[in-house]
Write a structure and sequence with these properties.
Elements lengths: L2 H12 L3 H12 L9 H13 L5 E7 L5 E10 L9 E6 L18 E2 L2 E3 L3 H19 L9 E6 L8 H8 L8 E4 L15 E6 L1 E10 L14 H13 L5 E2 L3 E2 L1 E9 L9 E10 L5 H13 L6 E6 L12 E2 L5 H14 L4 E5 L4 H6 L8 E3 L4 E2 L7 E3 H19 L1
Parallel strand pairs: 3-6, 3-7, 7-17, 8-16
Antiparallel strand pairs: 1-2, 2-6, 4-5, 5-19, 8-15, 9-13, 9-14, 10-11, 12-13, 18-19
Helix pairs in contact: 1-10, 2-4, 4-10, 8-10
Keywords: Hydrolase, Metal-binding, Zinc
Family: Belongs to the peptidase M20A family.
Pfam family, one: M20_dimer
Length: about 400
């Protein structure tokens, strides 16, 4: 960039008011929004954008078959002057996990103490959503005339079973003209390596969820030799899955398997006739659905069980809903713009790391889905998905400024 363009990008970042950004975050945290119950928070985001003349729209999300879910993403766009310039997606989810009962205070208090803001979803990821909202508003309200578009999407159901909000963005074609994606999930806390903010997360493992049905033969519990105990065989299946070979990737690390559930049997004095095993399978590039299925089939066949075993994956609304692994090239202009923005805002080079789990960013970065160069940059904290969750307030403001400057560098 020219010196004047860099100064323009810095000015957009500098316009972000730290107190207003934290006030915005606190208000969002004080609105309960467990997945599938995001309406009030979506309405708040819409009204906040609307009050600033940023022309938000609701984008309806419907999944009638499995979850019977109906909800709304909130989207807004800054239109650029050059149709050939890049379009940047700024994405965050407004839902949280279900409110955890172990909180010793109001789980949505938004209490601020010692530079930490507490509440369910404060770190994962309303802190990041506040950051992209503040960055989006700063660019929209500046004197900058961007060449490229900026698309803000505050989505529902990331924490739920299917990531329906971001999935619907892709299915409805809203990302067809997008060139790069920025997601403000908390990064360091779930990265493959120990890093601290400021950090740029440039890839993530993928995930499949085995759902295995084990069918034995019922018999009287006093004569177990006359039956085939599905619960016992399910335990053997779980152990076999736990020991599956996994691939390794130089950046994303190893794949992994974690048995999650064994259920079956209920009657006294009866050999269990059926059981179920579920197991988490995180994958790296090269491990696709066919590979993952074949590995399980081979391992279970080698057990030579008397039970019948049916290997499948978790039911989903569409076969295309899956979390594929991805890596964003270090040399991509998206990364360069955010490296420069981090140096400008934070005064240091950002750490570079890779995510250990999955999220909506997989839908964006997966070559089989949106296939976008995707970067995660978000404020960190502790206790995500549990009681005592908090986010560092200074990192919320820093991320907002990095996103504002990095985005401006890309579209101007």
């Amino acid at each position: 960039m020219t010196d004047s363009a860099s100064e323009t990008a810095q000015a957009v970042a500098d316009a972000i008011d730290s107190e207003e950004t934290i006030d915005l975050l606190q208000e969002m945290v004080q609105i309960p929004s467990p997945y599938f119950e995001e309406h009030d928070c979506a309405e708040f985001v819409y009204e906040w954008l609307d009050e600033r003349g940023l022309d938000p729209e609701y984008h309806h999300v419907s999944e009638p078959d499995i979850t019977e879910y109906e909800g709304d993403n909130v989207i807004a766009r800054i239109e650029g002057t050059d149709p050939d310039a890049p379009t940047v997606l700024l994405n965050g989810h407004i839902d949280t996990v279900k409110l955890v009962e172990a909180w010793e205070e109001d789980p949505c208090s938004g209490r601020i103490e010692d530079g930490k803001l507490y509440g369910q979803g404060a770190c994962d990821m309303k802190g990041g959503v506040a950051g992209i909202m503040a960055a989006f508003a700063a660019l929209a309200e500046s004197d900058v005339e961007p060449r490229g578009d900026v698309l803000l999407t505050a989505v529902v159901d990331e924490e739920g079973p299917y990531g329906l909000g971001s999935d619907r963005l892709i299915r409805d074609g809203l990302l067809d003209e997008v060139d790069v994606a920025v997601v403000t999930e908390p990064g360091p806390i779930l990265s493959q390596s120990e890093v601290e903010n400021p950090a740029l997360i440039l890839g993530a493992r993928g995930r499949f969820l085995y759902d295995v049905t084990v069918t034995g033969l019922a018999a009287h519990g006093s004569q177990p030799e006359k039956g085939t105990n599905a619960v016992v065989d399910a335990g053997r299946v779980a152990e076999a899955l736990d020991e599956l070979p996994v691939d390794s990737h130089p950046l994303l690390g190893d794949g992994s398997v974690c048995p999650l559930l064994i259920e079956g049997g209920s009657q006294t004095l009866s050999v269990p006739e059926s059981a179920r095993v579920m197991a988490d399978r995180h994958v790296v590039p090269g491990e696709d659905e066919a590979t993952v299925r074949e590995q399980a089939e081979t391992a279970i066949a080698d057990l030579d069980l008397d039970s019948d075993v049916e290997i499948d994956f978790r039911e989903s609304p569409d076969p295309g809903i899956k979390y594929g692994p991805y890596v964003t090239d270090r040399d991509h202009p998206l990364v360069g713009a955010f490296e420069d923005a981090t140096r400008s805002v934070a005064g240091v080079d950002p750490a570079v790391a890779y995510f250990s789990s999955v999220g909506d960013f997989n839908y964006f970065g997966d070559p089989d889905r949106a296939d976008l160069p995707t970067l995660i940059v978000g404020p960190d904290g502790e206790n995500i998905h549990s009681a005592g969750e908090f986010v560092y307030t200074d990192e919320v403001v820093e991320v907002a400024r990095i996103v504002a400057e990095g985005t401006t560098r890309l579209v101007c």
